[in-house]
Design brief:
Blueprint: E1 2-13, E2 20-31, E3 35-39, H1 46-53, E4 61-66, E5 69-70, H2 76-86, E6 87-91, H3 102-112, H4 119-125, H5 141-153, E7 159-163, H6 171-188, E8 191-196, E9 207-212, E10 215-221
Parallel strand pairs: 3-8, 3-9, 6-7, 7-8
Antiparallel strand pairs: 1-2, 1-4, 4-5, 9-10
Helix pairs in contact: 3-5, 5-6
């Protein structure tokens, strides 16, 4: 059963001679509970695709179905409510509120949800229990990213969208964050899409979508997923 279906999606920026086609007839599907990596070089359209799936960008044509809802046809307050109830976002730069503690930053997500996950459970899973009273400037990059993941995860989203979540992190911290995403997937059955330019990350995913020049170049299913600790980096 597909949880995410992207069907013949086109997206352009600009007009006239400055017009650039960011997505060109893109189609893909992701089953419920899968980890899917979207892989490609800068300018391949992968972030535009993720933003379109999350309703942050509008598309020119095609359909984006999430749990049967066509995101491309939802507007205004209804779209905001859909994102609140269904989606969690994790970005390369953590976008934490500097004058809020770890606990308070995560509570921002909790307040948005009708059925949040238990706060203490989230803090424990993320290894943030001892850091919950600290402010972002008192945290390492990895700890800030854990906090950002907690803010997205506490909403109990059905779909977690991650745009280069390890792009600003060192090697060891990147492995820790990716292991955490796998743990979240296993514990909560959360469907996860990860945009990355690092092909190594695809080895932990159920499926990898390779993008080039705004189009899907190929899709590869991974029948022999590796644990993050087993991957040769």
């Amino acid at each position: 059963m597909s949880y995410v279906d992207v069907i013949n999606v086109d997206k352009s920026y600009g007009e006239g001679i400055a017009k650039v086609k960011a997505l060109n007839n893109v189609s893909l599907s992701v089953a419920q509970g899968e980890i899917c990596t979207i892989l490609g070089q800068s300018g391949s359209g992968k972030s535009t695709l993720l933003n379109s799936i999350g309703g942050l960008d509008t598309i020119d044509s095609g359909s984006i179905l999430i749990d049967g809802y066509d995101v491309a046809k939802i507007k205004g307050e209804e779209l905001s409510e859909f994102r609140r109830d269904y989606l969690g976002f994790v970005f390369q730069f953590y976008n934490l509120v500097p004058n809020l503690t770890v606990l308070e930053n995560i509570q921002v997500g909790e307040y948005l949800s009708k059925s949040p996950l238990p706060m203490e459970e989230i803090l424990e899973v993320l290894g943030l229990t001892e850091l919950k009273k600290r402010f972002p400037q008192e945290l390492s990059g990895g700890q800030q990213q854990r906090c950002a993941i907690g803010r997205a995860l506490v909403k109990n989203p059905k779909l977690l969208l991650c745009d280069e979540p390890t792009g600003a992190l060192d090697y060891k911290t990147s492995k820790d964050i990716l292991a955490l995403l796998c743990e979240i997937n296993e514990n909560y059955k959360t469907t996860i899409l990860i945009v990355t330019h690092n092909e190594t990350i695809s080895k932990m995913a159920h499926k990898t979508v390779y993008m080039k020049d705004g189009a899907v170049h190929r899709i590869q299913c991974n029948d022999e997923r590796l644990k993050v600790s087993e991957i040769a980096w």
